[in-house]
Please model this.
Amino acid sequence: MSKNLYRLRQVGELMSLKAVFGSNDGMKSVRLLVDTGSSYTVLPTDLLQELGCDLQKPIIRMALVTAGGTVYAPIVAVPWFSCLGQRYKNFPVIAKDVPFGTFTSGLLGMDFLRKCDAIIYTKRAEILVQSGDE
Model:
């Protein structure tokens, strides 16, 4: 296994990075907020629908506790998801629009960060990833 260090984009106290996800219908690039307070990775509903993800037939609908209260959102499997040099097939994500304007389109949650054993260096705005898991 190898370790790779990636630079994060920092705006104020927030850090983000680019991710790509796709299906046979194409691929989409997004900027995601690195969110250790989010259990799940969250991607925008319109982009998921454009790639053929059926939000009406999710894997499951989940109650999410947010700053604005409890909301229900579908969890769908993205045919492939690539970020930080890692690529996972049928990666489950929450389909929900995140109100961050033009800064980011979604959240990179602990589900992904734990899967690739990420270590975040907050002062340097860098993230170390263990490669070779899958």
Remarks:
- The chain has one domain: 3-130.
- The longest strand covers residues 69-83.
